[in-house]
Amino acid sequence: EVQLLESGGALVQPGGSLRLSCAASGFTFSNYAMSWVRQSPGERLEWVSTISDSGGSTYYADSVSGRFTISRDNSKSTLYLQMNSLRAEDSAIYYCAKDIPPWAVAIEFDYWGQGTLVTVSS
Amino acid sequence: IVMTQTPLSLSVTPGQPASISCKSSQSLHNDGKTYLYWYVQKPGQSPQLLIYEVSNRFSGVPDRFSGSGSGTDFTLKISRVEAEDVGLYHCMQSIQLPTFGQGTRLDIK
What we know:
The structure holds two protein chains of two kinds. By secondary structure, chain A is mainly beta. In chain A, 0% of the residues lie in helices and 48% in strands. In chain A, strands 2, 4, 5, 6, 9, 10 and 11 form a seven-stranded mixed beta sheet that branches. In chain A, strands 1-3-8-7 form a four-stranded antiparallel beta sheet, with no helix packed on it. Chain A is globular, with a radius of gyration of 13 Å. Chain B is mainly beta. Helix content of chain B is 0%, strand content 53%. In chain B, the strands form three sheets. In chain B, strands 2, 6, 7, 8, 11, 12 and 13 form a seven-stranded mixed beta sheet that branches. A four-stranded antiparallel beta sheet of chain B has the order 1-3-10-9, with no helix packed on it. A two-stranded antiparallel ribbon of chain B has the order 4-5. Classes of the chains: A mainly beta, B mainly beta.
């Protein structure tokens, strides 16, 4: 059974930093691209970032480019999102999501974690 | 690519059909594949994949769910709504970096 378990969400002040983690199990993590998608109250889902199976390629939404960094540790089956220079508009539930096909970067998702809440406020 | 769903909410009697439309601002078809997906987010849960590539039901999805469409116009249909279908339905395109529709909230009359 595929499981994705996010952690690291917290209340942080504007301009602060936070690192999210997503622990994966139930599939061969190193074979799949992984992504972060966020959801703010009353807003549509927003794709944030994707990393290839090897970690060699990364992709970012314009809204977070230059502030967020996605990474992975395939030996630990864990995905990360380092978030710097946080803004109020970054407040959201952050989900990690697994790509559908192996050995490709398709950025289409079959399994999602339960999410972790990030609140940016003074 | 802008994804537009209609309606934004619908209330359905159990056993009755339901239909949700999703329109994209550009064609989602390329090289033999159409990059349109449907997800449902049940109350208090994360999104779950229902339909991939327009019309393919994901593993474990009941056959009362069906997807159709082409180009820029797509539809998710539920043939007979059940109480467990309550939730927020999202369409998503991935022919470019993914974007989602606004979501359609389904509840039971």
